[in-house]
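Comment thread on ticket #2218

A.B. wrote:
> Attaching the input chain for the structure job we discussed in standup.
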Amino acid sequence: MTTQSDRLEALADAGVSIWLDDLSRERIETGNLAELVKEKSVVGVTTNPTIFAAAIANGERYDDQVRRLVADGADVDKVIFELTTEDVRNACDIMAPVAQATKDDGRVSIEVEPTLANETQPTIDSAKALWAAVDRPNVLIKIPATLEGLPAITAAIAEGISVNVTLIFSTERYGQVMDAYLTGLEQAREAGVDLSTIRSVASFFVSRVDTEIDARLDKIGTDEALALRGKAAVANARLAYAAFEEVFSSDRWKALESAGAHAQRPLWASTGVKNPAYPDTLYVTDLVVADTVNTMPEKTMNAFADHGELRGDQVTGRSGEAHTLFDQIAAAGVDLDDVFLTLETEGVDKFKASWIELVDTVKGQMAQAAQA
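C.D. wrote:
> Ran it. Output below, let me know if you need it in another format.
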């Protein structure tokens, strides 16, 4: 009889690191996060402002800290900074044994302020501040893969800051992200930084690709176009993995690896299925391949634990058919360059909206604290 933990353990044994896309003080203080590590093969955590907004709005465990900060005259940015970095610091401590026992896991991600997504130096400053405040070697600072974010990624890595590069949609941008990482490692090496202390993942967004391309195929409406729905996201990730294999087998990489560097693993993000017509474990089952991370909402993780199928490596050696699929999508009339530009622009806008949501939530908590 296959149990829920068996399916997740088998997924981990296939080389997929399972990271939870959620965090709250309640998960930390009740022992839930530690239990997920023990029982559900969870070896990492990712966060974002929406996750923190939900945690703060729905939990009383932040109230005392908010009251203290308000009494000390903290503004909303300071309160957000203190609440979120404390949660991530404590999560890092829970994940520390995993980090010590594994090469690259046991990591907890926290995002630079999303309103800075198109500003290089402020992003670097935000990354430094978060890195110093959390003060744990297993934290990852999330930096968006905008054009302005690329030099910020290099600068952070060069200073020994571990980075989760987020908001990657196209393989073209992914190539630039890997170059930014390697350049940062080269600069770190020149500065005498111990490369073995640096970790990075590249978060490739999955489900949104299908959402955007499917909508365009629906609008075209031909039988040929409609037959292509629900296939682009997985194909895009397969192309990304092929690019990863190429870069991290190059002579440039081998020189860094010999100096102690760790590869920047692909991370499949946005793996909750948005179209109810598709299997709810689609972006887990079809993206199984070694040396990757899949960061899942708990709902997706539980769905895979309950009924997910493991059909072996679904990625390696399949870039050719992925290229063919994108040729067919383009031939059907979809402007792929515009797809990826739209996804990045909307992604940045959603990041900023998420931040505004967090600010509004914390302002509400601060107002209540002031009246208490």
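A.B. wrote:
> Thanks. Noting for the ticket: The longest strand covers residues 139-144.
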